[in-house]
């Protein structure tokens, strides 16, 4: 072997050895349970900053390839987005005048308060569609066509400018929770013909255990007085504890809320759910 060949061979052996030692050390770190995965154990500042940069660069690169619809600021888009925002996003991202929730406080990384900061429309679209790994942000693209996601992105542009009254008015005018086909429960729901259960009342969300089977708590026009994790301004949606995962209109990735597991002892609610007479038609 020529001397310089011998040098290369030695270097290669050293490199392979070093990598092996590192690999074993990494495996040991992973397997020994040294790392604390708890959401209440913050990252080191350097780790946090690296993760943030990774996320921001990843989103920016992908969002840059999107074409924002020319009519993004149209009132129709904003209005439609408002209803879905109220139904699907407020537990984590809040709404004007809304206090932080258990979800918004408990998640790490924390969900940004979208009433305070406007997010670039293309970046908002990409994030809403694809979600963010290892965070609470779900990918909604599996259940919502792009147009509806753009409507949410459109709404999110306006949100920091809205006060509670403006927000509530927009949500009320929006037709509620609707995203054209992603709602898996449309035909599968046990409690009646499609298109009736969002009828403009928050009473349907009386999710306290046992309440679903009491006549009168699920059908009215008045919000329940009880402490309930849904916030004011949350749009009406379906809370039937009995709905099986596949037959339930919430999108995949919807965080746990008191739909299903909260009422293990309550009898199925599907049969007792009724809407007020003359409930306006709506979208499931
Ligand atoms: C279960 C909680 C949760 C729900 C529900 C949720 N998000 Fe998020 N969202 C998060 C978290 C957490 C982050 C931040 C993740 C991170 O920083 O890595 C986030 C990030 C975002 C961002 C990016 C903000 C930024 O500064 O770049 C947008 C936009 C967003 N969410 C919109 C929505 C919309 C719209 C909905 C409803 C369709 C929604 N989210 C529902 C938890 C949630």
Q: Could you walk me through the main structural features you see in this protein, from its secondary elements to its overall organization?
A:
The structure is a single chain. This protein is mainly alpha-helical and 284 residues long. It has two domains: 54-172, Cytochrome c-like domain (Cytochrome Bc1 Complex, Chain D, domain 2, Orthogonal Bundle); 195-284, no CATH class. It contains eight helices and no strands. The longest helix has 29 residues, at 3-31. The relative contact order is 0.13. Residues 55, 85, 88-89, 91-93, 103, 107, 109, 111-112, 119, 123-124, 127-128, 132, 135-138, 140, 152, 156, 255 line the site of heme C.
Topology (elements, then pairings):
Blueprint lengths: L2 H29 L13 H19 L11 H14 L1 H4 L8 H5 L14 H10 L15 H13 L5 H9 L112
Helix pairs in contact: 2-6, 3-7, 3-8, 6-7
The site of heme C (HEC) has 26 residues, from helix 3, helix 4, helix 6 and helix 7.
Total DSSP helices: 8
Largest sheet, described in full?
none
The number of strands is 0
Question: What is the CATH topology descriptor of the largest domain?
Answer: Cytochrome Bc1 Complex, Chain D, domain 2
Q: How would you describe the shape?
A: elongated
In the CATH hierarchy, the architecture of the largest domain is Orthogonal Bundle
What's the rounded overall pLDDT mean? 76
Output the radius of gyration: 24 Å
């Amino acid at each position: 072997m020529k001397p310089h060949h011998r040098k290369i061979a030695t270097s290669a052996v050293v490199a392979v050895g070093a990598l092996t030692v590192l690999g074993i050390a990494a495996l040991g770190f992973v397997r020994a349970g040294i790392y604390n995965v708890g959401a209440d154990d913050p990252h080191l500042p350097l780790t946090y900053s690296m993760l943030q940069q990774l996320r921001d660069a990843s989103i920016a690169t992908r969002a840059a390839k999107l074409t924002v619809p020319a009519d993004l600021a149209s009132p129709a888009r904003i209005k439609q987005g408002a209803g879905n925002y109220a139904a699907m996003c407020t537990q984590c991202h809040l709404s004007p005048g809304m206090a932080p929730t258990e979800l918004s406080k408990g998640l790490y990384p924390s969900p940004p308060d979208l009433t305070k900061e406007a997010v670039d429309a293309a970046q908002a679209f990409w994030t809403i569609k694809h979600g963010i790994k290892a965070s609470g942000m779900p990918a909604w693209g599996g259940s919502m066509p792009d147009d509806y996601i753009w409507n949410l992105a459109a709404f999110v542009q306006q949100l920091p400018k809205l006060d509670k009254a403006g927000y509530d008015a927009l949500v009320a005018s929006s037709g509620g929770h609707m995203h054209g086909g992603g709602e898996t429960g449309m035909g599968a729901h046990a409690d009646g013909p499609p298109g009736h259960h969002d009828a403009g009342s928050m009473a349907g969300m009386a999710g306290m255990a046992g309440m679903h089977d009491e006549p009168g708590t699920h059908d009215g026009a008045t919000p329940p007085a009880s402490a309930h994790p849904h916030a004011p301004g949350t749009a009406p949606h379906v809370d039937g504890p009995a709905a099986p995962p596949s037959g339930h209109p919430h999108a995949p990735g919807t965080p746990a809320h008191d739909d299903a597991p909260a009422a293990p002892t309550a009898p199925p609610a599907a049969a007792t759910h009724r809407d007020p007479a003359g409930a306006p038609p709506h979208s499931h």
